[in-house]
Amino acid sequence: MRTALNFLALAAGLALAAPAGAQDLLIHGGPIYTGEAKVEALAIKDGKVAFAGPLAQARAAAPGARDVDLKGAAAYPGFVDAHAHLSGIGFREMTLSLEGTPSIEALVERLKAWTAANPGSDAIVGRGWIETHWPEKRFPTRADLDRAVPDRPVVLTRADGHALVANSAMLTLAGVRRDTAAPAGGQILKDAAGEPTGMLIDNAMGLVRAKTPPPSPEAEAEAVKRGAQVYAARGWTGLHDMSVGTREVAIQQALAARGELPIRIDNYMSQADAEAVLRDGPSQDASGLVRVRGVKLFMDGALGSRGAALLAPYADAEGTGLIVTPRETIDAILAKARKSGAQIAVHAIGDRGNRVILDAYQQAFADDPAALKAARWRVEHAQILAPEDLPRFAQMGVVASMQPSHAIGDLYFAPARLGPERLKGAYAWESLLKSGAVVAGGSDAPVEKGDPLVEFYAAAYRHDLKGFAGSDWHLDEAVTRAQALDMLTRGTAYAGFRENDLGRLAPGRPADVSVFSVDLMTAPFADIAQAHAVMTIVGGKVVYDAAKP
């Protein structure tokens, strides 16, 4: 049996290796935060931190190093996104993006424009719409899409990835009719006459996606490459890639072998591609940049599409959400993971979804609770927690992998969905930290933009990007700037069993550095919302430099 700790000992040498192209660097000219102190300069030699402290001593520690003058920008331990979808980030750059669409009418016009610019008969696929701000105050329907594209299949996925709308051509192709039964863990929304509206929730989305051609290997390879480049340019030095397929891992490994992968990736495989890691446990490639850590599973749906599983009905609609994976299926996978040392990460948003998975974790280690703490199993999102369940994260050693930007997007509709009492346990970062839990910060891109500055801003300020927060939004759950930095550095390192390598800038550790245009620890929050990445360094290699085209 290979446990997670044994794996780390086996791989330690590889993880510390400097990537090809690493340079000796002398960084100074702006505030440098090591995770423990603020220093004047940082010396990097052979891909690792050689010294952090006064400039004169840093120069002596890396003679002949490339001089990097920050010119007032600020450097930090490498920011790592604890929850994102790498190929989805890339595909967002390659397909119809509906981010920021302000209304159904605007969605129709964007769809018309995309169709005109991309003629043919292939299905049109897009993603990124959110209806909560729209003046129409409803989901889009197939009738809306038919106005733009009546004779070509169209599938437009909501930003959260837990709902989609299809036009009539797509529904016909998929055989979705008034008498079509929704699969377990899914919903087919219907109008007053009993006809499908085109909206499919959670597991019902599979009815349409089964008829949508998968991307070609070439397109998937391009998406992975673009996603990694986008992330390096935003200042991320790594990400935890969720719901990953074996083909994507192979693409990542090929990029790393060619020296073309700019960031570190920890993969959590989809349930369909989990056999190898459940059997053999974690692994990593020769570069140390690509690791397979464990498995990503789904407990419930999303709050925006009312698929999050709640203990009591929604405050603004009937129903309590969806359990999308049967408990017996979850339990069988957990038993395999415990034997192999594979790390488990389970999507749970509603208070019922969170309780069910916490109960499952507790049962899986009923004979040895201390072993559960060592396993560092994770709950992805942990958005809405019943008061009695919140302390269980710290007590059981379960990592809360949370995305601060969800709170500043959801503040417009979550109060109506949940009601005032349940809001007390919603997006409860400060309460979790105070209880002793580890909170790992991420973005869930492409659900959200995937910007480390937005995640820091949201965690420490808890207002939207225009500075708004409702009076009922529990601003006491905002964290300090130091805590926000820890969530995106130390917290993510711990969540991925990398705390001995990443999360701090200290001599002997890999030189992963994120540089931003403002000092996150002192700048007004409005300035943070407008800031940008200046440089990204992974293992001493400059993988992004805003000063270069």
SSE order and pairing:
Layout: H1 4-15, E1 25-33, E2 38-45, E3 48-53, H2 55-61, E4 66-69, E5 74-77, E6 79-84, H3 86-94, E7 96-97, H4 104-117, E8 124-129, H5 142-148, E9 154-158, E10 163-166, H6 168-174, E11 186-190, E12 196-202, H7 206-209, H8 217-233, E13 236-244, H9 246-257, E14 264-269, H10 275-280, E15 283-284, E16 290-298, H11 327-340, E17 343-348, H12 351-364, H13 369-375, E18 378-381, H14 392-396, E19 399-402, H15 404-410, H16 414-418, H17 420-423, H18 429-435, E20 439-441, H19 452-461, H20 481-488, H21 490-495, E21 513-516, H22 525-529, E22 533-538, E23 541-545
Parallel strand pairs: 1-4, 6-13, 7-8, 8-9, 13-14, 14-16, 16-17, 17-18, 18-19, 19-20
Antiparallel strand pairs: 1-2, 2-3, 5-21, 9-10, 10-12, 11-12, 15-16, 21-22, 22-23
Helix pairs in contact: 3-8, 4-5, 8-9, 11-12, 15-19, 19-20
Written description of the protein model:
With 549 residues, this protein is of the alpha/beta class. It has a domain at 123-209: Roll (Diaminopimelate Epimerase, Chain A, domain 1), CATH 3.10.310.70. It is 34% helix and 23% strand. The protein is built from 22 helices and 23 strands. Strands 6, 13, 14, 15, 16, 17, 18, 19 and 20 form a 9-stranded mixed sheet that branches. A 6-stranded mixed sheet has the order 7-8-9-10-12-11, with helices on both faces. Helix 11 (327-340) links the parallel strand 16 and strand 17 (343-348). Helix 15 crosses helix 19. The longest helix is centred in the middle third of the chain and has 17 residues, at 217-233. It is globular, with a radius of gyration of 23 Å. The N and C termini lie far apart (49 Å).
